[in-house]
């Protein structure tokens, strides 16, 4: 028989007790005094630093076990140490979104009484990638191991890797064609996958039989288990030094300290009040092969967010008014929403002191039941949750930033994260073997601008603060495509006094394969899914895909003629069309089409971030540098920013300051001449609203929001002075 | 306690502080006297005398104007009571055609104007572009920020709010 914890209380009782104490005292686990911190603050801080060092060290070690370029190159991994009840005490860098999703996983097992069956004992390994239990999407596979000290369960060590292949209906990790759970791939639902520190052979066989590229998943499992064992042994050694009683108390004080620190930081950095913002996401799949007609093929989602900061420092985010879940891959579970909140907090507020689950406890998410944020159906797919999560938490970043600006901390204001559409692929590799993978260079999008400078170019994504696109040579080892271009996309940052960070575009020659399936996801082409702030514009929408089938690139190369290495700056005719022969293809939205083969060309653009401030205030000298280096075009400098550029003696762009001042004065006058009072615009637009004179997808969006939210209905009706229900849902019962 | 001179805060707000120095400020513990120092910097920037109570955007401030608290543009234009959405008293330019969107996105693929429009909220006096909304046609204008001024001053800053 298995050992059971020596504690008087079983784990489930301990968890319920901890929750009760939090409700009664308002403090984590009922800790109203930070006794150990007050007794010896240096020891307290030193111990947490040690725990963090255990985590960072374990993650770095594990990355070298992995075979996946996603983990090795891009760092798609995080590890953390938890209390027995599953609250994070300390964590590594990396994809920190999963620190709290793992917490949900551990709590789920405790609540389901895993102590009784399948039992929790030393050496056990539990794994999960079910988002309704606790992760974001199928490729985010997490492993946890219990930490025992002399028979007592004293904590957990956990690790997550983002897998590049999940065995779904389409290859890759973000299974873009998944429309319900059963097409998302291999599920591991809070399963005991190993005992005595060894992964079970039958589990490995299941992985090998159900994945297109099992080497990634299986070696990542070994990497995660190694990191967990490493952390576990370090914690056990620490406990032998400081004593079990001290450990049990200090590990919880760390979390309560983290909670208090988050509240204090909110009071220090922000202004109390109500903040509002929104973004949108548009999905276009009509006529594309593979999609089942389970819902509307083309749809538009609104994502409104109301954030309240109260004077006690609590931040509440409310998603009321957003859209219902759907038969697509972009739904999100509360675990995923929690994860989004956690990773955003770690970047913007919880970046010093004791970073742990305490920060999350100082916040609240209101996720309306039945919406994409909290589906009332656990059969829905969540394979590409990030498509909606990233835009949503980009709004959160803009709302937080407005509070930083109001408080005077302009250097912390940031226009926010953006979607970074991903390429997934599968078929026959360049070695003649079956393969499948997600290409993770998307982990290096452009960031939103800051309130004091331009955004980061090709260096930021919301889910992993250690953004990295990976080396070309490493990616080329893993897929039957070779790069013929990887370059900055001009104007891909939103315009503003400070522009958003620019993105990049890659162009590949498909190589040494007769069958390559290429798919993309997180691709909002019809609407902006990002935004600007304080007068800055959103970055462009997702760009269309451009491919050339049966290209003549080998003939061109043999003749030494110039090739096209990027789409260029003419939106009506790409450089591929100008320079390369073959069958040219332009595809809007997700790329779902017939397989490619050797000699074809494929290009894919990533997204830039939104801009900050009035474009007419942008620095002309910086703009000349941007034009010279390919971040802005001359057209944009002139027409968007009103900056007059001339060539210097070497032919490089140089700003003409006097001419710019004159031009901008004229543009400002022109701006005023074109604009009308908002009251006049509302009066004119109201007629269109009354007639619901909108595209079908827009009307459907309003109807859905009205059905789900009385607050949205009231706000809409009050604003336009109409009865929104009778316009968009005639005949429906109130 | 961390503290910076008013000149440093002024240059920081203007985006003119050298990056290494900015970086140090970002990495350091925050300066608790920042708010009033920043307000003083903004107060020097504007030509009008109404005391600034809260910055709310790059060139918009809530200020005490006689007995009223209003949202005022840096140029002096009043957008009215700070509790009301200032955008309703702004001028607007809506980009909802391919041609007008192309002016801002000359070299990129565009959103579908049937699905999305850009709304520019402009000061009717000086022409400053204060805010841009990207929204579906028909979407109500957003009231971005309703600060709890009383709570902020009394409970967080521990100072009386002017005019109370």
UniProtKB/TrEMBL annotation, chain A:
Keywords: Ligase. This is Acetone carboxylase alpha subunit. It is an enzyme of class 6 (ligase). Residues 40-614 form the Hydantoinase B/oxoprolinase domain. One of its GO terms (molecular function) is 5-oxoprolinase (ATP-hydrolyzing) activity. GO terms for cellular component: cytosol. One of its GO terms (biological process) is glutathione metabolic process. Pfam families: Hydantoinase_B.
Automatic annotation (TrEMBL), chain B:
Keywords: Ligase. It comes from the Bacteria. It is an enzyme of class 6 (ligase). One of its GO terms (molecular function) is acetone carboxylase activity. The keyword Ligase applies. The keyword Ligase applies. Its EC number is 6.4.1.6. This is Acetone carboxylase gamma subunit. The lineage of its organism: Bacteria, Pseudomonadati, Pseudomonadota, Alphaproteobacteria, Hyphomicrobiales.
């Amino acid at each position: 028989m298995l050992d059971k914890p020596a504690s008087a209380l079983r784990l489930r009782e301990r968890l319920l007790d901890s929750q009760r104490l939090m409700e009664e005292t308002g403090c984590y686990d009922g800790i109203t005094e930070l006794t150990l911190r007050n007794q010896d603050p240096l020891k307290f801080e030193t111990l947490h630093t040690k725990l963090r060092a255990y985590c960072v060290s374990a993650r770095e070690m594990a990355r070298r076990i992995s075979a996946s370029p996603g983990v090795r190159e891009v760092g798609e991994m995080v590890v953390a140490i938890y209390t027995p009840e599953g609250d994070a005490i300390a964590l590594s860098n990396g994809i920190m979104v999963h620190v709290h999703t793992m917490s949900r996983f551990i709590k789920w097992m405790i609540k389901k009484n895993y102590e009784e069956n399948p039992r929790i004992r030393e050496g056990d390994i539990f794994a999960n990638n079910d988002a309704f239990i606790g992760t974001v999407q199928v490729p985010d596979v997490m492993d946890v191991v219990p930490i025992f000290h002399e028979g007592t369960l004293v904590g957990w060590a956990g690790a997550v890797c983002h897998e590049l292949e999940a065995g779904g209906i389409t290859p890759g990790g973000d299974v873009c064609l998944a429309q319900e759970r059963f097409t998302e791939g291999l599920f591991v639902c809070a399963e005991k996958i190993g005992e005595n520190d060894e992964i079970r052979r039958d589990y490995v066989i299941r992985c090998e039989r159900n994945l297109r590229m099992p080497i990634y998943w299986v070696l990542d499992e070994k990497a995660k288990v190694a990191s967990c064992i490493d952390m576990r042994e370090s914690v056990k050694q620490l406990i032998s030094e400081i004593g079990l009683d001290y450990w049990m108390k200090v590990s919880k004080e760390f979390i309560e300290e983290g909670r208090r620190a988050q509240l204090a930081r909110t009071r220090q950095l922000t202004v109390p009040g109500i903040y509002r913002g929104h973004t949108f996401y548009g999905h276009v799949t009509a006529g594309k092969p593979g999609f089942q007609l389970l819902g509307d093929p083309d749809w538009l989602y609104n994502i409104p967010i109301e954030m309240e900061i109260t004077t006690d420092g609590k931040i509440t985010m409310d998603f009321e008014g957003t859209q219902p879940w759907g038969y697509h891959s972009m739904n999100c579970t509360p675990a995923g929403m929690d994860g989004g909140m956690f990773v955003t907090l770690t970047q913007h507020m919880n970046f010093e002191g004791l970073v742990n689950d305490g920060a999350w406890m100082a916040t609240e998410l209101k996720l309306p039941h039945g919406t994409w944020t909290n589906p009332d159906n656990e059969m829905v797919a969540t394979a590409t949750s990030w498509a909606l999560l990233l835009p949503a938490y980009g709004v959160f970043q803009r709302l937080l930033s407005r509070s930083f600006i109001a408080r005077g901390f302009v250097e912390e204001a940031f226009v926010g994260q953006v979607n970074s559409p991903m390429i997934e692929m599968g078929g026959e590799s360049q070695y003649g073997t079956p393969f499948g993978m997600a290409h993770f260079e998307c982990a290096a999008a452009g960031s939103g601008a800051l309130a004091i400078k331009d955004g980061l170019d090709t260096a930021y994504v919301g889910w992993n603060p250690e953004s990295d696109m990976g080396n070309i040579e490493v990616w080329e080892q893993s897929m039957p495509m070779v790069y013929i271009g990887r370059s900055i996309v001009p104007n891909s940052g939103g315009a503003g006094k400070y522009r958003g960070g620019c993105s990049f575009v890659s162009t590949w020659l498909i190589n040494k394969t007769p069958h390559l399936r290429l798919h993309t996801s997180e691709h909002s082409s019809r609407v902006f899914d990002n935004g600007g702030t304080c007068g800055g514009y959103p970055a462009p929408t997702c760009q269309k895909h451009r491919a050339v089938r049966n290209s003549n690139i080998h003939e061109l190369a043999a003749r030494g003629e110039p090739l096209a290495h990027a789409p260029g700056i003419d939106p009506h005719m790409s450089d591929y069309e100008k320079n390369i022969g073959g069958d040219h293809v332009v595809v809007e939205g997700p790329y779902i089409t017939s397989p490619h083969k050797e000699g074809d060309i494929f290009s894919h653009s990533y997204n830039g971030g939104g801009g900050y401030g009035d474009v007419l205030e942008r620095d002309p000298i910086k703009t000349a540098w941007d034009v010279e280096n390919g971040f802005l075009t001359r057209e944009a400098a002139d027409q968007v920013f009103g900056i007059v550029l001339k060539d210097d003696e070497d032919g490089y762009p140089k700003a003409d300051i006097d001419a710019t001042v004159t031009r901008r004065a004229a543009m400002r006058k022109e701006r005023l001449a074109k604009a009308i009072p908002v009251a006049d615009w509302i009066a004119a637009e109201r007629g269109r609203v009354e007639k619901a004179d909108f595209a079908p997808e827009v009307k459907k969006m309003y109807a859905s929001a009205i059905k789900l939210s009385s607050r949205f209905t009231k706000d809409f009706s009050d604003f336009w002075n109409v009865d929104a229900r009778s316009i968009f849902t005639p005949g429906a019962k109130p | 306690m961390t503290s910076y001179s008013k000149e440093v805060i002024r240059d920081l707000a203007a985006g003119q502080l050298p990056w290494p120095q900015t970086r140090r400020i970002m990495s350091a513990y925050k300066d608790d006297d920042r708010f009033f120092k920043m307000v003083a910097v903004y107060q020097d920037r504007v030509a009008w005398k109404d005391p600034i109570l809260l910055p709310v955007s790059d060139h918009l401030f809530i200020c005490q104007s006689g007995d009223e608290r209003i949202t005022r543009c840096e140029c002096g234009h009043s957008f009215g009571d700070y509790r009301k959405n200032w955008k309703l008293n702004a001028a607007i330019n809506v980009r909802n055609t391919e041609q007008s969107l192309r002016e801002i996105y000359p070299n990129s693929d565009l959103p579908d104007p049937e699905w999305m429009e850009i709304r520019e909220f402009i000061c009717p006096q000086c022409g400053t572009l204060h805010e841009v909304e990207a929204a579906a046609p028909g979407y109500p204008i957003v009231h971005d920020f309703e600060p709890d001024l009383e709570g902020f001053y009394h409970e967080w800053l521990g100072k009386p709010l002017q005019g109370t």
